[in-house]
Amino acid sequence: MGTEEDGRVSARAVLDEAARVREQARRSGRWHSGFLAAFGAVAIAWIVLLESVWPHGAARAYVTAGGVLVVGAANWWAERRQVLPAGASRRLAVAGVAWFALYLVAIGPVARWKLEESLPGWTAAATVMALPFFIAAWAGRRA
After folding, report:
1. What is the pTM of this model?
2. Positive or negative torsion for Cα 117, 118, 120, 122
3. Burial level of 122, CB count in 10 A (0-12/13-18/19+)?
4. 113 phi and psi, to 5 degrees?
5. How many CB atoms lie within 10 A of CB 18?
6. Alpha-carbon distance 102 to 109, whole Å?
7. 3-state helix/strand/coil string of 65-118
């Protein structure tokens, strides 16, 4: 009889430890939602700088290069984290593709045609284009 009870205690201890580790991993992965929201904010700033503040000349190339460096550094930092939440890479990829499509195909050309270099107009357009990042951050927080 003692071994059966010992087995239950042992099984309960293993289950409790598994629940504790799962909760710790979930808490350790919460950073990714903020990361996606920051990505959205950087996307807004990058588009506004590129299309409204410095739309011509060498400054445009510098803003493009700076944006590539910031995104590369952010991705390098994210990959070095100990915990990457389940579905995090997929959420970032889907949001990035949606943002890029909105910028290149849907909103970007219309905004360039209608808004020219309007700072408030490009800020609004860039915010709409960055929505996929904010939606992915919200979805990641709920997961």
Report:
1. 0.80
2. negative
3. buried
4. -75, -45
5. 10
6. 9
7. HHHHHHHHHHHHHHHCCCCCCCCHHHHHHHHHHHHHHHHHHHHHHHHHHHHCCC
Distance of alpha carbon 60 from alpha carbon 52, whole angstroms: 10
Q: What does the pLDDT profile of the chain (143 residues) look like in tens digits?
A: 456 666 666 778 878 787 887 777 767 678 889 999 999 999 999 999 999 999 888 999 999 999 999 999 998 998 888 778 888 889 999 999 999 999 999 898 988 888 888 999 999 999 999 999 999 999 988 76
Comparing CA positions, the residue from 139, 143, 113, 135 lying closest to residue 43 is 135
